[in-house]
Design goal:
The complex is a heterodimer of chains A (about 250) and B (about 260).
Chain A lengths: L1 E11 L3 E11 L3 E5 L6 H8 L5 E8 L9 E4 L13 H10 L10 H13 L15 H14 L4 E5 L7 H16 L3 E5 L3 H7 L2 E5 L3 E6 H4 L2 H8 L17
Chain B lengths: L1 H29 L3 H21 L3 H22 L4 H22 L7 H6 L7 H30 L1 H6 L4 H23 L4 H13 L5 H26 L3 H17 L5
Amino acid sequence: MNAIETQRLSLGYNQFILKNISIQLPAAQRIAIIGPNGAGKSTFLKGLINLLPLRQGQVRFLDGANPAPALAYVPQREEVDWDFPINVFDVVMMGRHGQLKFWQRPNKQDHDLVRESLEKVGMLDFASRQISQLSGGQQQRVFIARALAQQAPITLMDEPFAGVDMTTENALVALFAELKAQNQTLVCVHHDLNTLARYFDWVVMINGGLIASGPIHQALTLDNLQKTFEGRLPLLENLQLTEPSL
Amino acid sequence: MAIDHFMLLALAGGLLAAWLAAPLGVFVVWQRQAYFGETLAHSALLGIGLGLMLQLNLTLAIVITSFLIVFGLHSLRRNAQLASDTLLGILAHGALATGLVVLSLQGNIQLDILGYLFGDILSIHPSDLIWMLVIGLLLIGFFSRHWHDLLNLTLNSELAQVEGVDVKRLQLQMALLLALVIAVAMKIVGVLLITSLLILPAASARRLARTPEQMLGYSFILATISVLIGLTLSYYADLPSGPAIVVSALGLFLLLLFKKQT
């Protein structure tokens, strides 16, 4: 089954940022979108989830499942209003409200799920803390817990590893493993080629258009990397172009 | 007896206006839309000018003008390639200036421009109270239906959209409700002060609140106290009522600055 399928997807405003991307991303994989700065990685992610209007083409989730499946999203940290007067528990619970009708209150199962999700990212002790009082890594983990609590078949994250501490990085890796074990699909914009093969199963390489998409051990070739980064390849000497170690 | 009657109307009008402004005010503060509120308020004066010129009901004329400004802003944001605050500045002051020009063209009508700018609570008519009650019911319906979606979109609008909230529609509905509230509340504090009735109680409430619901509750309480103190001052010290209410709200805000943020 395909988690996400696009046909001739083009995105952009006055001019195209991305053109003609037709791609099939399999379900139950950890998928990384890579490319140089300005290549359109975030644009692609946002186009998939309808945060940017499509210039042309279409996107299908889970082979066109009806109703459309719930999606979980972890935004970039700078895009959240941290002054909002709300505690950690309630932010995660907000993720459950999407599945409730407006007259329904969260039940015990919702509460348990929120607590479990906070536990998994090591934030249960902070449940009653105001979000304005958290460190950057803790803030990130709250939104990861929120995505977890939604139990969505597809989770999308925009650069989840950007500027986080080791605890948060470890929480993310554990979460990735858990999502995979539950046959859920994960799509991340990622920029660190050194950790790519350890954290992900599948890679989508983008630079103004699609360069390659496939399992890491097939798609991550020197040729594809050079096409993607056009001679701006970072830290290539440390990169293992071999089978993933996980 | 006559004074009592006027004071009761003023009190009812003041309280209703403050209660309409309180729930919208918390979202204006959260979503950093103070300048947008200011723009709608300024466009109210254009509404009055056009209403007088075309001999329409003034409240209706203000509402229509504000709606046009909301839609105009929406389309400019997409097409003009200018930052939001620039567009708001152009619309706010453009509408205010055009409004004053249109008003001055109504040569033979005696106008209380100061009343429009700073409010004239003694001009409140029972029909204004009915407008406010109707809009109040609208607000209650809107907020109880969409409360969680609104919180979600305040925290992060992209997240809300991915989770299935119709963000654009909710934002438009909020803007239109704000236009309605400004149209009816401007009689109390006037075009130039109405934004402070929106943001001062909410900004003060932020010092006390630990949840969005608490912030809403404190906003209602602080808005009520501001109106009561302001009108009392206005009655006994013969002060203009709109500025007196705003100064009371400002006093509460300054007092609460001394309190440690929760």
